[in-house]
Amino acid sequence: KFQMRESVTSDGAWYEGAWGYHFFALNPLLLTREMAERAKIALPEAAALKRMLDAPLASVFPDGTLPNFNDSGYTSLAGESSYYDIGYRLYRDARYLGVVNASPRKLEAMLWGAPSVSTATPAPLSSELLLDSGIAILRVPGSDATLAVKFGFHGGGHGHFDKLSFISYANGARQAADAGTQAYGAKTHATWDKTTIAHNTISVDGKQQAESTGKLLEWNPGPLATQIRLSAGPVYPGIEMERTLVHTAAYTLDIAEVHSTDGATHLFDWMYHSFGTLTTLLPTKPYFGFPQAGGYQHLSNARAVPLDEEWRVAFEQPNANMRVRMLGVSDTTVVTGMGLGPDLRVPVPFVMARRSAPAARFIALYQNASQAADAVVVETAPGVFTVTIGEMRDQITLSGKYSFTRTGGK
User: Fold this and answer.
1) Average per-residue pLDDT for the chain
2) Could you tell me which of 54, 49, 18 has the C-alpha nearest to residue 31?
3) Which of the chain's ends, N or C, has fewer CB atoms near its CB within 10 Å?
4) What is the pTM of this model?
């Protein structure tokens, strides 16, 4: 009863923020409910089980896997079909049928599932906010472009120090990467998996974030774009950090802002790991400026170039390239290299922007390969952006009241 009452968030995710542990817990809880029912023991707390089945449906990526946040690998919903078989018998939620029918029915179906199941057409997915869990899934109707960002509670011993980190998917491929977790016996589990620099967020002074609970500041889902603005909470002493994302089918606009409350200078490392092969025309040279701790010791093949102007790189995958550009700011060092990925045998490339200042504002745009023309992003006034791709022009207002307007194109 305690676990059902206290360990399941109001939106259904397990408190540790890792989908692998979510289903690890759901299994005995479902069985406990079955035993209680047969013993005629009242168990009103079991209402949480419906929420536990619903939360993964809200969070799933187009390939049927769940975000590998915290100590979790890529959890496939089809691999958890037995729980949805039981859930369909209990709740008759037609959404569960898509999971049930994704793989052959198992022993659990015979013991506790519905006598028979039918087929069902999956409903289209839209952007979802799991506020209590601190996870948002940004989607666009008619597109597989999906982005998951985390901002909630740490997750106890299975949490990672990665507030405001995100992963993404587009054009049939995983894009922005999270290492997830390795076997706990692997040395890199502690020295890489959990560290801040292993994630797509901001590290300050080469140190790890503290355990923290972030905060939702704005949430504006829409048919063409979904916008979210988040605060990281107290991840570093005397530091405030926010991130705003505007996600569309063709691109994601990312504004990450960080500043010291006392005006002191800090080193800010904006980090982006992505699957594929990194290509760039930047005149980089070998770079040896990383500390050898806090996860940085696992960054290899580093090359860097100091830049004041806008820069771009690409992460190339078959039919699924991702182009990344960042607006120019003086005294920026751009670093490329390789980090560790979910499979330790396959390194994952990264690009980093480093700045030393009392404050830093990183404005990046991630454009997927569905559009042939390169995106052009301009900040026409503070907090007002235009993004142009061919004939398509988006006007985005982030200062004051959020607005998104598209003209031309699709």
Assistant:
1) 95
2) 49
3) C
4) 0.95
